[in-house]
């Protein structure tokens, strides 16, 4: 598991198609798409150009049993900033592309393989639980350093966490586990919209490679 995660960190999971030739549906009035490089691979994020397109997946559901699928607070933890789609793209360009940050898909692998945000790495929320015997290795892979019984996070990566959307607690649980371990809240961001809102906006989704 650790080998696969480190390999994912190195590869960046970012092989995607280029932008459309003509784009009626832009991301912002002055940007038709966003393009940047992560670990030697070009990432392009754009919107679906079919203006009649409708979602037909499980993300069209409006009502799921609560619990467990309850509406979550805007904040995932004290000091952790909540961000939107433009901030996710800016994070990929400014942080992930420079090796200073990591976009983390906190969902279980069976969700991840159905499609994720380009550039994301899958670190399932349960692997960050304190009782996971590999948790310390994951923290080390994120740049933390163990000093005696304490952790030094001064060189740890900045993280942007997401899961399925405002009804999914997978990334908030991952955030809480990181905070409990001592990860600085100013180094964690939370994209509450998750995959559901990302899809609703017609943004590029990547199917992870084996």
UniProtKB/TrEMBL annotation:
Residues 97-207 form the Rhodanese domain. The keyword Protein biosynthesis does not apply. Keywords: Signal. SMART domains: RHOD (SM00450). Residues 1-22 form the signal peptide. Pfam families: Rhodanese. The keyword Signal applies. This is Rhodanese-like domain protein. It comes from Maliponia aquimaris.
